[in-house]
């Protein structure tokens, strides 16, 4: 595995310079582009890493999988009245579809869907961000996981689009709590900082039939685990989920911080990170690294 990781790093590093670090959140634009890391965690507990695998970065939309998992644990099938399970075919922050579809977002991974999920968690927990942080610390086995207040505040300051979605959903009666409070916890969740190693470990329950070995807990049932992986495979990579399925062939979730997590069911969880994004908002070097990795090892759910 170490040799394969070296080859992948050699292929991916020259791509740095061809993408663009996310700058629509000003505090994220300051991240140095020249970083690249991979962590692979096996269901047996083996860890393989290369590059900047222990450097913390902003997990951004990757947090949406943790929020979804929390709400599935607490609301079960009932949650699906408020959010759909279809790919959107639209940019992650689009408002257009919401108006046509009466305020019910297509899936939990576009921003509107993640906001509805955050709204549900707001109803369930006294302090939803604290609940999320505690959950992630348990899953990653890292008690130091924190949110970056500067990034969260920067997102809140430039919240117009996300706020517009939330208020639109409220006008359709699909949003229960105070919009500004939910936005605060949503942004604090997006601004959580973790490394590739933390994320590979925290996502390992999705490769292991819902079981997390560090915390020794059944996080989701086997069936729910399959469902989350199905949603990641169909909607986890913004408007590029089809291309990701074609090129990588695994359930995955990306974030504009440049991280991508992928699941090899029953075997491994993987996290790649490089901050520069392609036009669809996914890590450019990260996509290439995962594509080569899955081809070299023969990983694919298809
Ligand atoms: N916090 C970001 C937003 O709401 C999430 C973006 C992302 O990673 O997709 O715009």
Features:
12 strands; binds glutamic acid; 302 residues; Beta-lactamase; alpha+beta; 3-stranded antiparallel β-sheet; 5-stranded antiparallel β-sheet
Strand content: 5-15%
Number of strands: 12
Oligomer: single chain
CATH superfamily: DD-peptidase/beta-lactamase superfamily
Structural class by sheet pairing and helices: alpha+beta
Query: Largest sheet, described in full?
Result: 5 strands, antiparallel
Helix and strand run: HEEEEHHHHEHHHEHHEEHHEEEEH
Strand order of the largest sheet: 3-2-11-10-9
Could you say what the CATH topology is called?
Beta-lactamase
Please, could you describe this protein's structure?
This protein is an alpha+beta fold and 302 residues long. It has a single domain (2-297), classed as 3-Layer(aba) Sandwich (Beta-lactamase), CATH 3.40.710.10. The protein contains 13 helices and 12 strands. It has helices at 2-12, 63-75, 96-100, 111-124, 128-140, 149-157, 160-171, 179-190, 196-202, 204-207, 222-235, 241-247, 284-297, and strands at 20-21, 37-42, 47-51, 57-58, 146-147, 192-194, 211-212, 217-218, 252-254, 259-264, 268-273, 276-277. A 5-stranded antiparallel sheet has the order 3-2-11-10-9. β7 (211-212) and β8 (217-218) form a beta hairpin. α1 (2-12) runs antiparallel to α13. It is globular. The two termini are 22 Å apart. Glutamic acid is lined by residues 60-61, 92-93, 111, 155, 162, 190, 255-256.
């Amino acid at each position: 595995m170490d040799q394969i990781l070296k080859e992948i790093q050699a292929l991916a590093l020259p791509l740095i310079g061809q993408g663009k670090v996310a700058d629509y959140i000003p505090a994220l634009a300051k991240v140095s582009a020249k970083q690249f890391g991979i962590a692979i965690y096996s269901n047996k507990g083996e860890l393989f890493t290369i590059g900047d695998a222990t450097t913390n970065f902003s997990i951004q939309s990757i947090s949406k999988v943790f929020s979804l998992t929390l709400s599935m644990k607490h609301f079960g099938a009932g949650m699906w009245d408020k959010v759909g399970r279809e790919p959107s075919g639209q940019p992650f922050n689009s408002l257009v579809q919401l108006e046509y579809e009466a305020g019910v977002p297509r899936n939990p991974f576009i921003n509107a869907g993640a906001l509805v999920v955050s709204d549900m968690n707001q109803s369930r927990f006294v302090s939803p961000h604290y609940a999320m942080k505690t959950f992630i610390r348990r899953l990653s086995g890292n008690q130091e996981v924190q949110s970056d207040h500067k990034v969260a505040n920067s997102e809140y300051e430039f919240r117009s689009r996300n706020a517009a979605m939330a208020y639109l959903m409220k006008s359709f009666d699909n949003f229960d709590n105070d919009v500004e409070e939910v936005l605060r916890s949503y942004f604090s969740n997006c601004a959580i900082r973790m490394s590739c190693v933390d994320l590979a470990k925290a996502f390992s329950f999705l490769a292991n039939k819902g079981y997390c070995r560090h915390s020794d807990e059944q996080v989701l049932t086997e069936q729910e685990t399959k469902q989350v992986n199905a949603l990641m495979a169909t909607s986890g990579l913004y408007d590029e989920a089809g291309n990701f399925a074609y090129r990588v062939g695994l359930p995955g979730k990306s974030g504009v911080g440049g991280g991508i997590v992928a699941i090899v069911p029953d075997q491994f969880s993987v996290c790649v990170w490089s901050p520069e994004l392609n036009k669809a908002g996914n890590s450019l070097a990260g996509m290439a690294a995962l594509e080569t990795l899955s081809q070299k090892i023969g990983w694919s759910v298809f």
